Amino acid sequence: MYTYEEAVGWIHARLRLGIKPGLQRMHHLLKELGNPHEKLKSVHIGGTNGKGSTVTYLRNILQDAGYTVGTFTSPYFERFNERISVNGIPIPDEELVTLVSLVKPIAEGMADSEWGEPSEFEVITAMSMVYFAEMIKPDIVLFEVGLGGRLDSTNVITPLVSVITSIGMDHMNFLGDSIEEISSEKAGIIKDGVPVVSGVTQDAARKVIADAAKEKGSGIYQLGEDFHTERAPAAGRGERFHFISSGESSDLEISMMGAHQVQNAAIAVKTAAILQSQGEITVPDAALRNGLKKAYWPGRMEVVSDKPAVILDGAHNPEGIKALAATISERYSQKNVTILISALKDKELNHMISLLEEAASEICFTTFSFPRVAGADELFEISDHPRKKKAGDWQQYLDEKLPVMDDGEVLFITGSLYFLSEVKPVLLQKLENSRKNK
């Protein structure tokens, strides 16, 4: 047996194996583990942006209807265990240790196989499947795709519904450098006869997904064609919208901000409706409404403080930045908006910074300790903003910034989710200390 630290250390050490697209290792590993994935009822959720939010909307809807719901998501935000959760509660340390004890000898025994040892993500995926199938046995599991879809290690499942939230230009080194190529990889999660819910917006992407669904004999439900949303005047920090499907309309409300969150919520509502039509679940109207309202996903337009106004948003690619900029324009056009950002080198930095500059009164570039992170100087040089700054030490920046903010200013901290996960606990402690000292 291992300690929790040893178990997590072993998992993270597998990062040295890199990303290994392909399903052969997963099939072999799962066979050795008794094929736990074949015992699960699941929903498979892929896409460029919105996966995590869609998972949390759907989980809360199902949970409010009385179901036990497993979720497999990535990356984690505050603690590794979050990646494997039941009803939003991360896997306990001791059960994670048990899973590592089970998977480790099998994974290491594959070193001399024709496929090699499984990667970090493959190991975690397999652990989640054993956990849900053998240890917890939830009513349904929501699996979030890690990267792409076709060759992602989660793509060994045959779900009840396949979901593709959005398509954007991200991870092009693995998925291709055109919308059509990326869409084809995302559409790889579509299985024979399994219905598909799509939230993609580009015509080219929609065609690729529709063609893939037709080839698989799968019914497709496209946002904007088969079901619709109409935003209503904002409800405080959240959103209100009309959901229209099959000739019926419902007035719904969510607590997360932004037009993109309305789309994510609508995708979750449609997915729940399909599960209900399959006879898999029963969702009373009250559970639907309560679940949507309760749904919260850390680091997505998360208001961590009102005075001073500080918001975290993990906009880590052009589509995410575009959504953030749109929300700032809608909600905070009367405020002085300061943006603190750190991003990874393999992102479309020029495009992202250009989009942010339009929304910011002032922008500060920083960095943090991470293998692929861009330096503050590198980001600073890309920017043409008249009020740009750079901070080699983001903690020192916050120490200087927070005390001088007034009611007319809001600070957005954005970029890599890894950056936000490092910032959040430190930020909360600084805010707490500030309140105590007043």
Provide a compact summary of the structure:
By secondary structure, this protein is of the alpha/beta class. The protein has 15 helices and 17 strands.
Lay out the secondary structure.
Elements: H1 4-13, H2 24-32, E1 42-46, H3 51-64, E2 69-72, E3 84-86, E4 89-90, H4 93-109, H5 120-136, E5 140-144, E6 161-164, H6 172-175, H7 179-186, E7 196-198, H8 203-216, E8 220-222, E9 227-235, E10 238-245, E11 248-254, H9 259-277, H10 285-294, E12 302-305, E13 309-313, H11 318-331, E14 336-342, H12 349-359, E15 362-366, H13 376-382, E16 388-391, H14 394-401, E17 409-415, H15 417-437
Parallel strand pairs: 1-5, 1-6, 2-5, 6-7, 7-8, 13-17, 14-15, 14-17, 15-16
Antiparallel strand pairs: 2-3, 3-4, 9-10, 10-11, 12-13
Can you offer a commentary on this structure?
The protein has 438 residues and is α/β, with parallel strands linked by helices. It contains 15 helices and 17 strands. It is globular, with a radius of gyration of 22 Å.
Could you list some keywords that capture this structure?
alpha/beta; UDP-N-acetylmuramoyl-L-alanine:D-glutamate ligase; Protein-Tyrosine Phosphatase, Chain A; 2 domains; 6-stranded mixed β-sheet
